[in-house]
Amino acid sequence: MDTKFVVNIGRQLGSGGREIGEKLAVRLGIDFYDKELIRLASEESGLCREFFEKADEKASQGIIGGLFGMRFPFISDGAMPVTNCLSNDALFKVQSDVIRKLAEQKSCLFVGRCADYILRDIPRCVNIFISCSDEERIRRLCRMHAISEHAAEEMMNKADKRRSEYYNYYSYKTWGAASTYHLCIDSSVLGIDGTVDFVEEFVRKKLGGL
């Protein structure tokens, strides 16, 4: 019997979703992936890491302009041919392949990047969305980035728009909607550690026998 499992976390910016994911992964004894996926996708494809950083959690925009409109001097020999169009869709596929490969090898926790949709055929998975009150999100962003409340609110709104467009485009589902996930939770109610406790109990009960 295959005992591997996956936890996928979607999150609002400033909700503490990454921190909750990191702590939950430690509790469950599994590997944690967030920004690390960018490095792994870069290594897997031979493409410059900067391509993936620019396209990270952004919906398709066709061929990427500016830096990405150039020929591909950052591609290592023997990787993708220079005739390929380096679209966000192509980068999404590379990153999706990396996520699937990791999930086939071991139990993992993924943050963002449509991992719940990419791994939709895995039977032992738990999909969670972390939200938070706007007030708490703004306070956290001000503290983390040493910015004003106005700048934090602007950052928050832009991130929400970008993440929802990305998720809705690639998954054909609705980012943050209760019907999309097994559990949606507001981290401002229980705090970070309390949310980790609650989610851990939920994951163990849903999967059974952990």
Task: Summarize the structure in words.
This protein has 210 residues and is an alpha/beta fold. It has one domain (6-207): P-loop containing nucleotide triphosphate hydrolases (Rossmann fold), CATH 3.40.50. Helices cover 51% and strands 11% of the residues. The protein has helices at residues 17-28, 36-45, 49-55, 88-105, 115-118, 134-145, 149-171, 187-207; strands at residues 6-11, 31-33, 108-111, 125-131, 183-186. It has a five-stranded parallel β-sheet with strand order 2-3-1-4-5, with helices on both faces. It is globular. It starts with 5 loop residues before the first strand and ends with a helix. Residues 62-85 have low confidence and may be disordered.
Order of helices and strands: EHEHHHEHEHHEH
Strand adjacency order, main sheet: 2-3-1-4-5
| Largest sheet: number of strands, sense, barrel closure | 5 strands, parallel
Low-confidence region ranges: 62-85
CATH topology: Rossmann fold
- Tell me the β content: 5-15%
The percent range for helix content is: 40-55%
Report the CATH C-level class. Answer: Alpha Beta
Overall spatial form: globular
Nearest-integer average pLDDT:
84
How many structural domains are formed by the residues?
1
What is the CATH H-level superfamily?
Answer: P-loop containing nucleotide triphosphate hydrolases
Report the span from N to C terminus.
14 Å
- How many separate helices? 8
Number of strands: 5
Query: Which structural category fits the helices and strands?
Result: alpha/beta
The whole-angstrom Rg is 18 Å
Corresponding CATH architecture: 3-Layer(aba) Sandwich
